[in-house]
Task: inverse folding
């Protein structure tokens, strides 16, 4: 979901999931507030973020502040979900318990990569817990299909091994390891916050009235304008072979073309222009436009946009947000008859001419416009609720912590004195 992704994207970076210590803490009837320490944030920064993200945050104080804000939002929303009993929802209870076991398995495998689990241990587990596997399948429908026929015994064996490893991890105290503990907190929070925000999204329709929609349209009428444009693209992307651009004919035509192609030497692919070459070519075309050359004719003869060149570069009416951002911004900044300068996008350089502009129908007459406004207002209300929760939370996430990136161990050279091993 959009909001939950926005909130958690920066901090969900490893495959570990919720751990036993956090699970036990949050299973109580009165959930404890979360108060991270500077040490906790340093562990999250150095151990749970990828090196590239660490470097980015270390170089930019605003990125560090953004990380703190995102973590606080996530934990704050999760705390509200916890207080409203989401952890006791049947589907989430099963999910959180399963996450707990995954976390312990990952921690154990990382510390003991060569450890083996014997068939006797697996058999002993199933004898001691005869209903666990069936209960697991009942609570996790996505595994049921894979547990049919002969595959059932193999999956049951894997489940037993999974459980035995989790128990070994607990005995080794891995659930109390800082990295596992904090990853567990973040992942458990993601699950709870995601469920809470999903319900908020489903119920947000009730928060948006027809009067809200009408008022928004009245205050932002130009947001729903549509434009019809022509454009010329000078591409910086690799060009397809000319043969590949031809329309398919009947079987005989295809065979004749193949025979002719086979008879000739392989043709060189059209040259891909550098950015500077494309800019120079586009500027020359723009100069011709300003001198009065027919725009549609120039597009047909020179544009690299195969979807529109045969129509003189025309794109029929479209609304805001339907094109790449740079193209979109340029098109909606022009009046009918006006021509842009060179507009650079990921595809190359565009010259855009607006042929016509029209206002969208009022939302009472156009369901698409109405739904677009509803979606925008829903999003604003959800974000407002998240900000309200974060502003009034008792969750503590310190802004001051050491954001020095973790330096990967350097390979030893033959002349260097070996460093003592640290386990």
Result:
């Amino acid at each position: 979901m959009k909001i939950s992704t926005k909130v958690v994207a920066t901090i969900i970076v490893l495959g570990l999931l919720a751990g036993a210590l956090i699970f036990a803490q949050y299973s109580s009837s009165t959930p404890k507030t979360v108060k991270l320490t500077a040490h906790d944030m340093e562990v999250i920064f150095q151990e749970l973020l990828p090196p590239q993200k660490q470097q980015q945050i270390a170089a930019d104080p605003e990125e560090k502040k953004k990380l703190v804000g995102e973590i606080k939002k996530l934990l704050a929303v999760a705390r509200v979900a916890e207080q409203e009993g989401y952890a006791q929802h049947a589907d989430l209870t099963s999910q959180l318990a399963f996450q707990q076991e995954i976390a312990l398995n990952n921690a154990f495998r990382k510390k003991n990569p060569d450890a083996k689990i014997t068939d006797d241990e697996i058999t002993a587990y199933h004898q001691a817990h005869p209903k666990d596997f069936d209960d697991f399948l009942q609570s996790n429908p996505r595994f049921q299909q894979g547990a049919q026929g002969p595959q059932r015994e193999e999956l049951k064996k894997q489940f037993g091994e999974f459980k035995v490893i989790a128990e070994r991890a607990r005995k080794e105290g891995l659930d109390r390891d800082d990295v596992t503990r904090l990853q567990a907190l973040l992942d458990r929070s993601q699950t709870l916050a995601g469920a809470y925000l999903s319900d908020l999204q489903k119920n947000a329709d009730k928060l948006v009235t027809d009067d809200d929609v009408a008022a928004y349209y009245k205050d932002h009428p130009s947001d729903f304008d549509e434009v019809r444009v022509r454009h010329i693209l000078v591409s910086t992307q690799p060009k397809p072979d000319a043969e590949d651009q031809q329309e398919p004919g009947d079987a005989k035509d295809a065979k004749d073309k193949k025979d002719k192609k086979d008879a000739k030497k392989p043709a060189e692919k059209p040259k891909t222009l550098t950015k500077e070459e494309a800019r120079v070519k586009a500027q020359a075309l723009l100069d011709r436009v300003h001198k009065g050359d027919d725009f549609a004719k120039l597009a047909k003869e020179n544009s690299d946009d195969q979807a529109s060149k045969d129509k003189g570069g025309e794109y029929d009416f479209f609304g805001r947000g339907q094109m790449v951002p740079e193209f979109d911004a340029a098109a909606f900044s022009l009046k009918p008859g006006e021509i842009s300068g060179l507009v650079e996008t990921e595809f190359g350089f565009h010259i855009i001419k607006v042929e016509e502009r029209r206002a969208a129908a009022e939302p009472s007459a156009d369901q698409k416009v109405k739904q677009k406004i509803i979606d925008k207002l829903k999003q604003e209300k959800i974000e407002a609720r998240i900000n309200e929760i974060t502003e009034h939370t008792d969750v503590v996430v310190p802004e001051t912590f050491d954001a020095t990136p973790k330096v990967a161990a350097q390979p030893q050279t033959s002349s260097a004195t070996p460093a003592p091993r640290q386990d």
